[in-house]
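User: Need the bound-state model for calcium ion:
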Amino acid sequence: MSPARSPSAPPAPRGVSAGPPVAGGRSWRRPRPTPSARLSAGLVLVWALLALAACVPTAHDSGFQEATTTNRDFTPRYVAVGNQPITLACADLDGDGRLDLVTANSVGNSITVVLDPGGTAPSTREIAAGTQPSQVVLGNFAGGTKTLALGGLDLGKPTCQTRSGTGAADIAVLNAGDNTVSVYLADGLGGWNAPTTYALDGAATQLQAVRLKPTDPVDALLLSLAVDSQKAVGGSDSMLALVNDGSGSFTLLRSPAGTAPGRFVTGDWNGDGKLDVAVLNPGSAAATVLLGDGAGAFTPASAPNPPGIGTAPFDIVTGDFDSDGKPDDLAVSNDSGPSVSILLGQGDGTFALAPGSPFEVGVNPRRLFRAAPGSANLVVAHDQQKFVSLLTGGGTTGQYAATELGTGTDPFAAAAGRFAGSNSDDLAVVESQQRLVSIFANNGSGGYSRSVIGFASAVQFPMTGDFNGDGKDDLVLVQPNEDRLVLLLNLH
Ligand SMILES: [Ca+2]
Ligand SMILES: [Ca+2]
Ligand SMILES: [Ca+2]
Ligand SMILES: [Ca+2]
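Assistant: Bound-state model below.
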């Protein structure tokens, strides 16, 4: 059900401009509100008070909080899934050209496949998983051409983009509660076979489907694995490759990856065409660079620990941050500083700190996101704060400058997309404590204006995609406590 529009809705969103990048790169400051922003904020306050006095109805049954919503460009649609969905993956699962979704349902010990969530008649199917599934990835594990790949916040790709194919995607699920990976192969009949489950001797931070070398016809799986002392299962800290025999049957291959490896990214750091890894070791203030042999084994690079990683590194992304055409650079968020380190790939498996790096940002930097697909500009979510940092740069020196965009409390995830009808990439930021999605509309010259969409229950895990095929970017989120997806269809 769509919420009714209020005739007294505020005409303009609250203005929060990023302003020009701060010169010098090591400083950051919160932009002062402009007079028009203060006026808009005042109008919002007046409207809120009037709305309160007039008892503007709130559409509780739809989970939507009218009183906090200043962005009317999106129509919410809800799709029931399993118990406590905590994460999402997307692909065209059935090869019909329209995007589909899979949720991992943490309490339900299941996944839910949602076919065509943006269509008129979405269909869902809940499938049993292991204990506390925490991540779902989609891939081509058994050959043929499949329509895939893919969005997933855990992959640093909160945009659902497909590569073409004709067959149904296969599914892999990381089960955090019992340290297993379950692989579901498409059965060719519109469903999936009963899973094959692989036991891990440690706790995995991240699961990713990868091609170990470009000529591989199928995907392998990579995991970063740390000793799980809580479960006393022993094991060892490692990168674990699940090497695919071509039919969707996997063999485990372990490589050392420093102490307690956590989040990782993949790329080709030495230019030999074989997939390499850079993994964070949060407890030892380090990252470890591993070079792959194309068959699932990884060995440390000649200088395996890049310089400039601060204490408590939290997140890592890869991209082309020095505009040399090679997406072999790294960005790492660090609690110390607090800062973001930019590390430039040297082409031989080593990395050099960009001039001026690490770049100082506000307190508690956590997840890193791209400000636009393929962009060298980054968004930093700050734990328990009321802003995200926008890191702009990526010129030939890898120099960056930070500004802040004001948000609600505890922004923890961002997704880029064309949400506001212009040709510039806008941002959606999810804020847990105020149950808000902030839409930052890009003015095309580096400034953003903010409007918000409020919910009665927390939303998580924003992902961008055109789910109804009208050419406009939509948003999808999970609402864990309501056991459902929220699809925000873009009407702008
Ligand atoms: Ca589909
Ligand atoms: Ca390589
Ligand atoms: Ca580069
Ligand atoms: Ca759309």
